[in-house]
Amino acid sequence: MLNLITDIDGVSVGHASDLVIGTGVTAVVFDRQAVVSMSVLGGSPGSRDSAMLSPENSVQAVDALVLSGGSIFGLDACGGVLDGLREDGRGLSFGNTIVPIAAQAILFDLMNGGDKNWGSQNPYQRLGYKAYRAAERGRFALGTVGAGTGATTAFLKGGLGSASAVTRAGHKVAALVAVNALGSPVIGKGPHFWAAPFELDGEFGGCGYPVPFKPEDTGLLIKGMEPSATTIGIVVTDAVLTKAEAHRLSILGHDGLVRSIHPAHFPADGDTVFGAATGEKLVNSPMEFMEICHLAMVTMARAVARGVFEAEALPYPDAKPGWKDLFG
């Protein structure tokens, strides 16, 4: 186990990053279509082709999921992923036409100091295609990479994080998240992560909780009122789930955000989580599904902290520092 979302068999991850602009794209590609749904609890979301993922709608499975910076411009990244899928013959056949199925969520990283004067065409379709072509199984980078390239939090650099776990029945569960929160992943001014109770093997510093908590530790600490927020993520299991159960998985992923970001789901956040099932292993009892849901929450919380722990400051004046810059 690599403690990554690619621990789920048949899941590949690819990044494309642009440090001049300060943005990027992450593509999650399934070897075989995965059953997917999603839920949105932030007040300012942005997504592409998300309505089809509602449990009551007809589309049951997708070829890929896309996480991107760029706010509304970033929605073009999904087009680049679709281009790559179509080139590879992935998708549904309609006569002589192949139609891949993919969905996307975006975060707002347009005020992080990068050069956003990209000319007449934004770079996101190109970045989406590049991320798709880079997708592979196994180990991949965390932190300031892909959709986490331009991400920030209240006073620290945000980033791209991932974590995995296995239930007692042997189902794998894993999360991937781009942490661009309005709030903070650390308690007060740090270094302690809100996700500390879930940490395994010092994966984000091993700092634990402060003793005792100070009153200001639980006070309001946010970036400000600019719309430079939104945490977007994916929870995947190798279990056989219905679309409604994948929707429940996405909601438990949001529980992971609540346990690792203070506050989460604010009006200026667009917090969005996908839930996906690759269908490799049967679920034999309600309790087995309950444990999958529990680990959806736990792995998402751990992934948030890992993304911030591994993030490095962008190469711009006045860029927000990485956790390691302050506490490393």
- Order of SSEs: EEEEHEEEHEEEHEHH
- Average per-residue pLDDT, rounded, comes to 96
Share of residues in strands? 15-25%
Classification by helices and strands: alpha+beta
Give the second-level CATH assignment, the architecture. Answer: 4-Layer Sandwich
CATH homology superfamily? L-amino peptidase D-ALA esterase/amidase
Helical segment tally?
5
Measured distance between first and last alpha carbons: 26 Å
Total beta strands = 11
CATH class: Alpha Beta
Shape call: globular
How many domains? Answer: 1
The level of helicity is 10-25%
Low-confidence segments, given as residue ranges, are none
Briefly note the CATH topology name. L-amino peptidase D-ALA esterase/amidase
Please tell me how large the radius of gyration is. 18 Å
Largest sheet: 9 strands, mixed
Describe this structure in words.
- This protein is α+β, with helices and mostly antiparallel strands.
- The chain has one domain (5-327): L-amino peptidase D-ALA esterase/amidase (4-Layer Sandwich), CATH 3.60.70.12.
- Helices cover 21% and strands 24% of the residues.
- The protein is built from 5 helices and 11 strands, in the order E-E-E-E-H-E-E-E-H-E-E-E-H-E-H-H.
- The protein has helices spanning 77-87, 124-134, 243-258, 286-310, 323-327; strands spanning 11-18, 23-40, 47-48, 61-68, 92-94, 97-99, 102-106, 160-166, 172-178, 232-239, 272-281.
- The strands form 2 sheets. Strands 1, 2, 3, 4, 7, 8, 9, 10 and 11 form a 9-stranded mixed sheet that branches. The chain has a two-stranded antiparallel sheet with strand order 5-6.
- Helix 3 packs across helix 4.
- It is globular and about 60 Å long.
- The mean pLDDT is 96.
